[in-house]
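Example 3.2
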Amino acid sequence: MELPSKILQDAVDQLATLPGVGKRSALRYALHLLEEEESAVRDLSEAILKLKTDLHHCRYCHNISDTEVCPICANEKRQKNIICVVENVQDVMAIEKTQQYRGLYHVLGGVISPIDGIGVHDLEINSLINRVQSGDPAPVEEVILALPTTMEGDTTNYYINKQLLPFNIKITTLARGVAIGDNLEYADEITLGRSIVGRIPFEG
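Structure, written as tokens:
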């Protein structure tokens, strides 16, 4: 559709780049913003800009944070000798919603996928190995592999398991209450919670 304003068109084009937003929805959002007070639009734009300028990744687990160390890693009540390895930040949020896990996390930022050009060095795997090796911020006794039950997730699990074997620590994985091929962020809280509590030894 041809719009009467290039400025409006540019706004629609940018909004349409967001996941799940088509041109029609983008136009509706743009027209809504046009009717808003300038201060409200400025607050929105500043909040979005701060996502890129002020947001950090935790120095330990790589979760998103407003500070150098995220609230989970900084929480003295967490079990710091257990690390749950997840694919992304959404998985941390999904597991936290279950209220069944009190350890720490390690966010890889993806899984090994040669077809997508994602290899070991594109992920936070080496930092996980270093974390276990150094015992910083605390000695590690157990690593939970909580990656997607897909071919790529399993490949990443096997690689990490192989790298961690020399450290003689407990390596577990989620109980298969999570269906094969599922991402954690889409699992219901009860199933995911039971999978965490009922985790089993990882068989490499």
